Amino acid sequence: MIPAILRRRRYSLLWLLVIVALAVLLAVLATIPLLRGTPDGRIGSLVGQPAPALSVEGLDGRTWSLADADGRLVWVNFWATSCEPCRTEMPAMQRLAEEYGDELLVLGVDWGEERDAVAAFVERYGVTYPILLDPTLETYYRWAGTDGLPRHYFIGAEGTVVREVIGPLDPARMVAILDELLAST
């Protein structure tokens, strides 16, 4: 018969080994995304595919579609006023929409919010590129299929998705993507 104190020590040692093993496993799992590097958006569920249909009413009352690009690169951005990264990106996107206007059409598709809230946000931030409303999220789910904002899709003149970026873009990366995509057209 094993004394109770030895049994407790054995169980304590066993628990310590289990905790250490779990810690090592979690450390390995946590480093896997770091090893992948920063995704550049060249591969995504829609890249290389024809862009999904887009026919959405804008804040201006006009129905916008990809055909409105007239041969320009289209940047479809799904965003929401409640999304901090989305709010952070929009001033840079506005500057780029102005700077690349002859070669680029930016379409900001709001993620299911009320028209008045979106209009107030757009006015406060000085956004002048077309802001489209998707109150039922039908367009969003046709494009994205899952939750997560912001989402960026770049559509070439032929109507194919050429870049897909899930998550925020810093201004330097926005410029790099646009310069690369516009140079290849």
Q: Care to count the β-strands?
A: 7
- Please report the first level of CATH classification, the CATH class of the largest domain: Alpha Beta
Largest sheet at a glance?
Answer: 5 strands, mixed
Q: In the CATH scheme, what's the topology name of the largest domain?
A: Glutaredoxin
Task: State the end-to-end CA separation.
Answer: 81 Å
Identify the strand order in the major beta sheet: 5-4-3-6-7
Q: What amount of the residues lies in strands? A: 15-25%
Superfamily (CATH H level) name of the largest domain:
Glutaredoxin
What would the principal axes of the Cα set say about the shape? elongated
Radius of gyration: 23 Å
CATH architecture of the largest domain: 3-Layer(aba) Sandwich
Helix content bin: 40-55%
- Number of structurally distinct domains: 2
Number of helices: 5
Give the topology string: H per helix, E per strand. Answer: HEEEHEHEHEEH
Low-confidence parts, pLDDT < 50 over ≥5 residues? Answer: none
